[in-house]
Amino acid sequence: MKKRYLAMLLTGMMVLGGCRTTAPDPNPAPAAMEAAEPTEAAEPTETAEPTEAEAPTENAEATPTEAEEETITLKEVFGAHGMKAGTGVTAYDLRKKQMTDLILANFNSITCGNEMKPDYVLNQRKSREEGHVVVEYGKDTLAILDWCKENNMSMRGHTLVWYSQTPEWLFHEDFDIAKPLVDREELLTRMEDMIKGNFEQLETLGYIDMFYAYDVINEGWMEDGTPRSCHWYDIIGDDYFWYAFYFADKYAPESIDLYYNDYNEQFKADTLTEFVGTLTDEDGRSLIDGIGLQAHLYTSDDLDQYFEAMDTLAGAGLKMQLTELDVCLGKYQYPDDLNEDTLKEQGQFYYNLINGIFERVDDGRVQMDALTFWGTTDTASWRREYNPMLFDGKFNPKYAFYGATQVKENAGFE
Ligand code: GLA
Predict the structure, then answer these.
(1) What mean pLDDT is predicted for residues 286-311?
(2) Helix (H/G/I), strand (E/B), else coil: 185
């Protein structure tokens, strides 16, 4: 089966070398957690496009053995647990055949890395001309949507209301940053137009049926249990959360699950569990369907603590997805050396993480219909200095891949 991979696997090389240099820090200080927050500077597409030169150096040890004769793919392994296997892509990723081959073989769900964020889809000139928010997808967004359609991919929408990668002009009178900020009523109108405009674009252009989930709000809460200060919150007030879901529920088709998505979720479980319970309409019907756990993790993270957070969040009775999974070698700001030991440790981490998730999905503790990795190869990752993905820069599977696919004997265990 999956002969497509076999050749790749047989020539697959792993990166070898030194040893782990940092200790796990299961309790990062709040400052570190805040600093760990993803920034635009780290965006995959905003940075230099990955080149071959950036690929990790290969050492001459072919890892795959006969066991890989039975090469498995993520989508099959996840499918056996009723889950889609997803990855984040950029328009750039899709220009490389080796990358698309890998994606097509392994994944059946796609999230746009950047191309459906507000700064990509809001049109300032037309918003000014028409006097209301205009959503219009550009060529990169359409390129990904078309590719997904041609390849029968399911899609997660990412993202609507966010403090980051949202143009400043959206918050100013006449869509002009030289003018004052708008008031609450106007910003609520703009929020509604933005949400409505996105779903209308998808419908009009014929893409809506691909979508099964959508991030309505991204990163709205802090680790200390307070709402993040941002224009949405500062101008509208704390009911901006409710309105975002109210509008999304109003304009999204039933078939699309509406998600709240956040990072450092293992430190926010109580806050988020309480929060999602407030998102109901006047009849008590929930306006939200799921909680998205970004899962930007480190091999130094405490998996028991992570599972505890998942179990707490499951108590909200909603669906849950890992939406941006990557597991960095080392800890925040201290990448481990890339070597045989650290790669094995990463393989084990992926194995244990996915294993714990499958257990929870199978016994019904957690309702998870998809898990998305935030990219495919190390060199195309936004955290490439930590080598967090399942495949190396030469498109070869790492121990991490075998961990994620539950092939324990190749996942780096001794
Ligand atoms: C956050 C966002 C993603 C992306 C990453 C960095 O996790 O949700 O869309 O911007 O940061 O790549």
Answers:
(1) 98
(2) helix
Specify the residue for token string 């328009």: 91
Question: What single string gives the DSSP state of each residue in 195-230?
Answer: HHHHHHHHHHTT-GGGEEEEEEEES-B-TTSSBPPS
- For residue 208, how far is the Cα from the chain centroid? 20
The domains located in the chain, with CATH, are 3-8+65-410 (3.20.20.80)
Q: What are phi and psi of 160, to 5 degrees?
A: -95, -75
List the one residue out of 273, 368, 279 whose CA is nearest residue 320.
368
The backbone torsions φ and ψ at residue 104, rounded to the nearest 5 degrees and listed phi first, read: -65, -35
What are the pLDDT digits (tens) for 345-396? Answer: 999 999 999 999 999 999 999 999 999 999 999 999 999 999 999 999 999 9
Alpha-carbon distance 268 to 309, whole Å?
A: 8
3-class SS string, 43-54:
CCCCCCCCCHHH
> Residue 202 C-alpha to ligand 1 middle, in angstroms?
22
Of the candidates 212, 169, 170, 187, the one whose C-alpha atom is nearest the C-alpha of residue 83 is 212
Protein residue whose Cα sits closest to atom 7 of ligand 1 = 38
For residues 171 and 118, is the Cβ–Cβ distance under 8 A? no
Q: Which of 33, 37, 43 to mutate to test the pocket of ligand 1 (most atoms within 8 A of CB)?
A: 43
Please state the length of the chain.
Answer: 414
Which amino acid residue places its CA nearest to atom 3 of ligand 1? 113
